[in-house]
Amino acid sequence: MDAAKMLDGKVVLVTGSGGGIGRDIALMAGAHGARVVVNDVGATLDGRGQDRGPADSVAEEIRSAGGIAVANFDSVAESEGAERIVRSAIDAFGHLDGVVNNAGILRDVIFHKMSPEQWDQVLKVHLYGSFNVSRIAATCFKEQQSGALVHMTSTSGLIGNLAQANYSAAKLGIVGLSKSIALDMRRFGVRSNCVAPFAWSRMVSAIKIDSLEQQERVTRLQQMTPAKVAPLVVYLLSSRATSVTGQIFCVRNNEIFLFSQPRPVRSVQREQGWTPEQVADHAMPALSASFHQLDVSADVFSWDPV
Questions:
Q1: Active site residue 167
Q2: N vs C: which end of the chain shows fewer Cβ within 10 Å?
Q3: What's the CATH number where 153 sits?
């Protein structure tokens, strides 16, 4: 296969691709031969209004560069919107080969001040949105016995960050969703992987800076462009990645990481079982050497990006 056309003949849907990481993924997919559905509701950062401009603009960029693209403006947060998004790919191009679940919002607030609305808004777009679009696409993939899903997770969920309980819960939930899809759909030739991107984007610019840790995190992110994330995603959508599924990757400027997945690290056992006192006196002292610290993403990724 010509490396310059790694997605030649494929139809790819990218949610939230009117700007930021999604835009660069859509542009690179188009440059590598994919017919692209550019989805974006065009809402402001605080969720108000809708604007067809961002999706239309990216679709036009792809076409101006010699590619093929259509725009869609539905929301991933509701199943009806997800159905219309997938239908737009089928109507325009006859089939669907790949989905990038990238749409997202932030509603950062310290946990004890978080409202149910702030919780729901983030879960609906990130976690429900990834499920909604993937579920509709899965029917198409099953029928054609092939398909690739790439879901955007985050080190906020994989490691942790301050004032992001809603976002962290959604992003770690996406990891479980992706693994379940990979297990359930592999017999139909469907792959599902996660990517945790480090990149400065419009959504990330909404991070509240109320601590030294957050300031350090934002400073690092400002050095990283969304375009750095796109090559891995394009690869995962391609036929070159047919053996790659159920994995969690991370892109940080010029670095690509493979993340571990939760597995037992240490155990203790008593033949007669445990009393609470024995747990306190014996189990916890034995296990505590392997405890994880209350670190945040910036603690783990503490070196400057290459």
A1: yes
A2: C
A3: 3.40.50.720
